[in-house]
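Good day; I would like, with your permission, to put a structural problem before you. A protein sequence and the structure tokens that stand for its backbone fold form the material at issue. Thank you for your consideration; the sequence and its tokens are set out here:
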Amino acid sequence: GPHPAGRTPAAGGAVEGARVAERITARVAEALPGAVVRLAGSRAMGCALPGADLDLVAVVPGAGEAGAVRARVAAALPEAERLREVTGARVPGLRLRASGLDVDLVVVGADAEAVRRAVGAEHPAFARLAREVKAWARARGLDSAPFGGLPGLAWSVLAARTVREAGDRSPAGLRREFFGTWAAWDWSEAVSLYPAAEPAPGVGPVTVLTPSAPVRSCTAQVGAGVRDLLVQELYETWERLDAEPEGPGGLPAAAPPHRRHAAWAVVTVRADSAREFEENLGRARGRLRALLAALEEAGLPEAHAWPRPFERSATLARYAVGLGPTPPDAAALTALTGTWAASLPGVTVTRADGGDVPDLP
């Protein structure tokens, strides 16, 4: 017979599908306190076919770790099948099937969302500058928070602020603006995504504030020595860009760190099995700031930990920590680092002369 109120089976299926989608969306939102979960794709535009994928975007506080989100979503949707993390995409996320619907959940850190909003239509210029600046920082060993450097978020904030305030947004103009601005910056002041009416005092040698709540410094790990190195490198690059405004595109190459360090503390992490090695490496990386603080307190402010190992296998890694122009001898270094190394399984610290450490990756 005729269907009541003109409803067809297809329309009924669409209504039921919409209910299921609403229920899943609500449960994902409950699983992620502090996040904003919203519909995307065809359902958000009101043109979804019955059985269409459910596309969700979760804007989560801070950086947005897909692993942590996965555990919470798995607990909230015990019936979920084929739950897996999507890596390699431009933004991380999860893919799963629940209650007959394929669900794509994109995880966006609120910090990234705030930066994207701040640069607006200038996003292509921002993205290009941020990539160049992060490559510049990597070549100088200044790009890793666990090693006392500035994390990717800090470089993104500095690049976004530059793009917002620059008059000349050509690639060369933005490079000069970036290095000119931050080489001359008074680092006793905090840097925020939007300039503050009243400059806020910094809470450490370098203070770059996160762009989303809870607002905090993402550079608390940067010591005075790395700040001085940062200023020196920014200034040298700015001078070279300024001297050759019509020079070749891109940024000048980094001077090899061997020029700054007469000797190295070589931190070796090893273990018998790959799994044990990963655990030992995680602990050593987590405690590296304490080693740098001890060296700084002992009168070695130029100590600089290079973030990538110069030797690596499945059960061994060696990292170089530059000791500056007047390094301690082997006995003094052992006295300084012995307690730190003894507290970490599989970790030793030895001294190497400047030329004994190969080029750093």
Remarks:
- Residues 1-10 have pLDDT under 50 and may be disordered.
